[in-house]
Amino acid sequence: MNIGFFLKKIRKEKHFTLNEVAKSTNLTASLLSQIENDKTSPSLNSLEILLKYYKVNISGFFKQVEQKSHIFLKASEKETLINTSDGVKLSLLASKLENNVLESFSVVLSPAFSITAAKLKPDIGGERFFYVLSGSAVVKLNEDNEYRVFPGDSLNFKSYVACVIKNDSESEDCEFLLTGNPPVFI
After folding, report:
1. Residue 144 per-residue DSSP state
2. How buried is residue 4: exposed, middle or buried, by Cβ count under 10 Å (0-12/13-18/19+)?
3. Entry pTM
């Protein structure tokens, strides 16, 4: 566990110096430096004192410490959902970080089928990104904006915008990437 790394991160985010923290917590600046540089582990009592000073609860702190910083996903390990009745093959890309808000999908949309991205409330403030890999489609945003998209074309739009992606081809699949913050599909 990188306890020291996260304690240092919290301290810097709060714009405290080691000396300020040491003075306020009765821990030495030397000990704090050793903890932050992972040269020693804090005692449970020292950790509680620091987290109380930083106004961070201990369970929230450990969720942050235990969370992975990245995910690598081999093509052979992708989770793919195939729904032939809806004409959709959906593969979850490297989006499995705990508490992650960004989801990324590779989507293959069969001819004459469509898919709808989740429309969220405006106060959420998220975004979507759409990128065509192969084939073509019609993307309709908020009923009044329509785009014919081809390989290499992309759209970036707010998560409160209604989005329907339709493959209007009679014979060719449309493959695209769709990412979202918060999640794309609900």
Report:
1. T
2. buried
3. 0.61
